[in-house]
Recover the amino acids of this structure.
C-alpha cells in the first residue's frame, strides 16, 4: 500500500495516537509547570535547606535517563510498595517530574536574570517577598523565559514517544502496532514522523507569535 | 523630634566591617546630606535604615519603631513609611508610569485602584510628567525615570525619604531636573536623607551635612560650617578632592 492509502486506512488510529500524545503532553506540562515554579522558587530562596531540596530534585532529574525514570516509576515503585500503577498514570508522573526538573532550572534562570534592584525597589515600598516575587519579578522573568519554556514544551512532546515502551498507546506505539500487522515499516514511520513534525511546527509558529506579543521592549534596567 | 535614630550601628559583610560605629539622629523635616569617598559605607548606612541590609549590631529606629530587631511582617509595615530612591531608578519595566506609581498602594490594598490612580496623576503633575502617565519606563530619559521613581516612593505617603546618589547615573543635563524635584520636596518639609556627590545641592538644601569615611561619621555640621571651615583633616582632604 502507498503512503496515502495507509494514511486513509489507519487514519482514526493514528489520530487517536496523536490525541494521546497531545493529552499526555498537556497534562504533564501543567503539572510540570507547577513543579517547576515551586522548585524554581525554592532554588532562589535565602534558606539553604530549601535550595538544597531543589538542587537534589533537579540533579536527580538531569542525572538519570528518562527511560530509567519511567521504568523506576512504572515497575520499581509499584514493586516496592506493592501497588498497581496503570501505564498512563505512570507516564504522566514520569513526564511531569522530568519536565518539572528542567522547568525548575528555567524558572531559576529567569528569576536570576532579573536585576536585583527590582526586588529591592519592590521591598522598599513595603511589599512582602511573596508579592514582590509574583507581581514584579515573575512577570518579567517569564518574559525572558518564554523561548526556553516553549523549547521545553517541544522536548516534552517528543519525550512522550519514550513512554511507548511501557505500553502507552500514544503516536509512536500506535505506529508500532500498525506495523506489527502490515510490516510496512518505511511508510508507517514516515507517516508518524511527519505527524510529529507538523504538530511541532504548529507549536513553533504559535510560540513565535506569543514571543513577539510578549516583548514590551528590549532594554531592562 | 527624632524621626530616625541610629545607635551604635555596625555592619559587616563577612570579614569586612563596613559600618564601624554609627550614631545619628535625624529630626522631623530635617534634610541630611551624606558625603564621603567611594566604598566608605554610605549606601550601606542608607540601606540599613530600611532594612535592605540587616545590621550586624546596634539599633535603627524610624518613627519610634525598631527596624533592626523587627519581624519580617513588621518590617514590611515600617518600610511603607520609608521611601527609597535608587541610583539606577529601578522602575518596573513591565508597568506603565502610572502603574509603577499606583502599584504598591493598590497591591497592599491601601487604596482603591481609582484613588491610587488619581493620586498617581497628582504626583506626576508634581514631578512635571503628567503627559507620560501611560508610557513605559524605557521610553523615558534617565531624568524622567528618576522623577517617576520619586513619585513612586511618594505614593506611599512616606514620612522619610532616602536617596542613594539619585543623580549619579544621569547625564549632566538631566541632573538639574531631579535635584529641583528634591528641593521642592525639602521645602515642603519632607524628612530626607540624601547620599550625594552634588556638593552644590548639599550646600543649598541640607540642614546638616555628614561626612563618612571608613565606616565612621568623621564630621558633621551645617553646610556652611562643614564646607566653609572643616575641622577634620580627612574631611579637608576629601573636600579638596571633590570641590
Ligand atoms: N552585599 C555586599 N557584600 C559584600 N560587600 C559589600 C556589599 N555591599 C557593599 N559591600 C562593600 O562594603 C563597602 C561599602 O560599600 P557601600 O556601597 O556602602 O559604599 P558607598 O559609600 O556607597 O560607595 P559608593 O560611593 O561607591 O557608592 C564596599 O567596600 C563594598 O565593596
Ligand atoms: Mg553607594
Amino acid at each position: 500500500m502507498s503512503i496515502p492509502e495507509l494514511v486513509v486506512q489507519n487514519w482514526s488510529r493514528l489520530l487517536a495516537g496523536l490525541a494521546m500524545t497531545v493529552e499526555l503532553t498537556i497534562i504533564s506540562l501543567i503539572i510540570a509547570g507547577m513543579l517547576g515554579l515551586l522548585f524554581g522558587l525554592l532554588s532562589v530562596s535565602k534558606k539553604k535547606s530549601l535550595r538544597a531540596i531543589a538542587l537534589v530534585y533537579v540533579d536527580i532529574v538531569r542525572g538519570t535517563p528518562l527511560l530509567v525514570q519511567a521504568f523506576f516509576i512504572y515497575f520499581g515503585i509499584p514493586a516496592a510498595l506493592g501497588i498497581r500503577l496503570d501505564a498512563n498514570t505512570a507516564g504522566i508522573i514520569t513526564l511531569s517530574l522530568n519536565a518539572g526538573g528542567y522547568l525548575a532550572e528555567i524558572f531559576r534562570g529567569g528569576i536570576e536574570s532579573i536585576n536585583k534592584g527590582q526586588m529591592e525597589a519592590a521591598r522598599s515600598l513595603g511589599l512582602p517577598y511573596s508579592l514582590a516575587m509574583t507581581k514584579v519579578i515573575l512577570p518579567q522573568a517569564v518574559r525572558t523565559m518564554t523561548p526556553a519554556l516553549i523549547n521545553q514544551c517541544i522536548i516534552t512532546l517528543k519525550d512522550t514517544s519514550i513512554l511507548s515502551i511501557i505500553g502507552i498507546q500514544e503516536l509512536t506505539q500506535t505506529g508500532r502496532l500498525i506495523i506489527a500487522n502490515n510490516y510496512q515499516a518505511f511508510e508507517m514511520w514516515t507517516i508518524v514522523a511527519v505527524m510529529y513534525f507538523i504538530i511541532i511546527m504548529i507549536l513553533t509558529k504559535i510560540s513565535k507569535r506569543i514571543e513577539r506579543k510578549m516583548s514590551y521592549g528590549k532594554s531592562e534596567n | 523630634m527624632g524621626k530616625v535614630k541610629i545607635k551604635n550601628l555596625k555592619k559587616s559583610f563577612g570579614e569586612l566591617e563596613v559600618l564601624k560605629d554609627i550614631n545619628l539622629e535625624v529630626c522631623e523635616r530635617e534634610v541630611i546630606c551624606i558625603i564621603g569617598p567611594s566604598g566608605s559605607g554610605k549606601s550601606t548606612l542608607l540601606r540599613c535604615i530600611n532594612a535592605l541590609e540587616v545590621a550586624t549590631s546596634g539599633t535603627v529606629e524610624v518613627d519610634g519603631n525598631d527596624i533592626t530587631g523587627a519581624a519580617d511582617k513588621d518590617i514590611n509595615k515600617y518600610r511603607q513609611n520609608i521611601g527609597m530612591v535608587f541610583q539606577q531608578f529601578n522602575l518596573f519595566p513591565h508597568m506603565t508610569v502610572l502603574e509603577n506609581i499606583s502599584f504598591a498602594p493598590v497591591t497592599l490594598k491601601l487604596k482603591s485602584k481609582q484613588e491610587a490612580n488619581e493620586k498617581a496623576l497628582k504626583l506626576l503633575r508634581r514631578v512635571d510628567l503628567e503627559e507620560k502617565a501611560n508610557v513605559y519606563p524605557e521610553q523615558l530619559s534617565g531624568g524622567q525615570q528618576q522623577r517617576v521613581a520619586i513619585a513612586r516612593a511618594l505614593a506611599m505617603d512616606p514620612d522619610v525619604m532616602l536617596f542613594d546618589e539619585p543623580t549619579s547615573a544621569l547625564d549632566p543635563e538631566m541632573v538639574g531636573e531631579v535635584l529641583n524635584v528634591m528641593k521642592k520636596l525639602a521645602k515642603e518639609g519632607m524628612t530626607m536623607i540624601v547620599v550625594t556627590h552634588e556638593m552644590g545641592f548639599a550646600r543649598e538644601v541640607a540642614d546638616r551635612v555628614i561626612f563618612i569615611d571608613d565606616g565612621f561619621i568623621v564630621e558633621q555640621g551645617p553646610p556652611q560650617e562643614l564646607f566653609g571651615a572643616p575641622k577634620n583633616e580627612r574631611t579637608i582632604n576629601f573636600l579638596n578632592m571633590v570641590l
